[in-house]
Amino acid sequence: MEYSTIIEPFRIHTVQAIDLPDAERREAALQRAGYNLFGLNADEVIIDLLTDSGTGAMSSQQWAGMMLGDESYAGSRSFRRFESVVQDLTGFSEVIPTHQGRAAEKILFESMVNEGDVVPNNTHFDTTRANVEYQGAEARDLVIAAGTDPSAIHLFKGNMDIGRLRASVEEVGAGRVPFVMVTVTNNSGGGQPVSMANLRAVREVCDEYDIPFILDACRFAENAWFIHLREDGYADTDAGTIAREMFSLADGCTMSAKKDGLANIGGFIALNDGELAARCRNLLILTEGFSTYGGLAGYDLEAVATGLEEVLDENYLRYRIRSTQYLADKIANADVPIVQPPGGHAVYIDAAAMLPHIPAHEYPAQALAVELYRRGGVRGVEIGTVMFGRPRDDAPDDTAAMELVRLAIPRRTYTQSHIDYVAEVVIDVAGRRADLGGYRIVSQAPWLRHFTARFEPLGE
Ligand code: F0G
């Protein structure tokens, strides 16, 4: 008979101890860090859900592959393997390794984006937005309306609003849109998938106006699995075939292999345009390294190549998406408001709904993230006005579209009891919601302020 429990499809082979800092140590850590969870030391954290990026466990196949790493400066065997895996997966002929996703963004955008341009995306992630803006261009988010409404139920909340995309291109002129980007899954919008039909519609708009289409492919495998589960016509198609179809609709991609590459470091740009790739490689050599290693060791290239193959395993993807849903269901059943349906790599708590007494410019999601750490040593990340708002002179911040706390789940790392503990902490904090107060920022950087800002609780 078939049993319904979906087990972790792996055995644990190597373990790392988790420290269990007590409440007093956590409080001291918070004060030292200026209530910014990026300032904590990892051994001050019990369950670390800050990010799913580079924090996963590698398989024994990946570790074994690392021993085969060819560290030749130019033309290493490990690069040729990496290149062939990426070519086979994406169908793109030009493969440019980078040390992580943002390096791919920096190089591609510097090669394609001019001052005054507009780059549409469903929702730019923080580094993607910052890298567009760093080129003097506008990063424009055009996700469908349901994508910014945490409680709206839609199977593909990451979809691009095709009407607004077309209107944007008409408004600024195709000549000022260097490419259209779509992020799969849509991380800043709740880890929500994009449908194949929507990718096809973006492709049509790009063809009509002769604009390249670039995928931000960090979580391509999770997106492919959602298409398999939810989109008409794909129930019998495997994740690899779906992923290849997704890539076939685009002209290129940027990738952080720290997510669906199942590696601790790595990334790439993949393109069909040889001339553009040559420009990217020139910049790559300036800042990352020669074009056959791009800031990575040969053994990293091996780990990513194997990871890209493993991530499309159906048993892995079924467990991955189901285990995220498990946390979501547990806390939603206790009336904790979350972005519904849950995303692939993370559960996003809707802090604006949970803490209506804290206005957005007093950072309700920051307040919630701090409290989850204070009470239970669980580290999530604010995705709200701290991350995406703007300071204004003599006025409260411009606020973000949503106030979320993301609990990102590292791949193949935590077991069900870790997740049960997280749910217990979240539900406990939700029960004390009335006691939580807002924060103010006492120092911040001119961009990507969330990494280093310092806070003070209001009313102190
Ligand atoms: N694009 C998306 C959608 C991302 O989520 C990230 C990273 C990047 C690009 C940049 O990749 O970190 O390798 O330079 N997201 C991580 C996160 C940091 O926590 O969501 P990177």
Helix content: 25-40%
CATH level-4 homologous superfamily of the largest domain: Type I PLP-dependent aspartate aminotransferase-like (Major domain)
The low-pLDDT segments are none
Task: Identify every distinct bound molecule in the structure, by name, code or SMILES.
Answer: ligand F0G
> What CATH first level of the largest domain would be assigned?
Alpha Beta
Structural class: alpha/beta
Q: In order across it, which strands form the biggest sheet?
A: 2-8-7-6-5
General form: globular
In DSSP terms, counting alpha (H) and pi (I) runs of 4 or more, how many helices? 16
Radius of gyration: 21 Å
List keywords for this structure.
alpha/beta, Aspartate Aminotransferase, domain 2, binds ligand F0G, 14% strand, 2 domains, five-stranded mixed β-sheet, 460 residues, Aspartate Aminotransferase, domain 1
What does this molecule look like?
This protein has 460 residues and is of the alpha/beta class. It folds into two domains: 23-52 and 313-457, Aspartate Aminotransferase, domain 1, CATH 3.90.1150; 60-310, 3-Layer(aba) Sandwich (Aspartate Aminotransferase, domain 2). The chain is 39% helix and 14% strand. The chain is built from 16 helices and 16 strands. It has helices at residues 23-32, 60-66, 77-90, 101-112, 126-134, 162-172, 196-209, 220-230, 239-248, 274-287, 298-310, 314-332, 351-354, 364-376, 385-388, 416-431, and strands spanning 47-48, 94-98, 118-121, 138-141, 180-183, 213-216, 252-256, 267-271, 346-350, 378-379, 381-383, 390-392, 395-398, 404-408, 439-443, 454-457. The strands form six sheets. A five-stranded mixed sheet has the order 2-8-7-6-5, sandwiched between helices. A three-stranded antiparallel sheet has the order 9-14-11. Helix 14 (364-376) packs across helix 16. The protein is globular, with a radius of gyration of 21 Å. Ligand F0G binds at residues 51, 53, 100-102, 125, 127-128, 183, 187, 216, 218, 256, 258, 267. The site of ligand F0G has 15 residues, from helix 4 and helix 5.
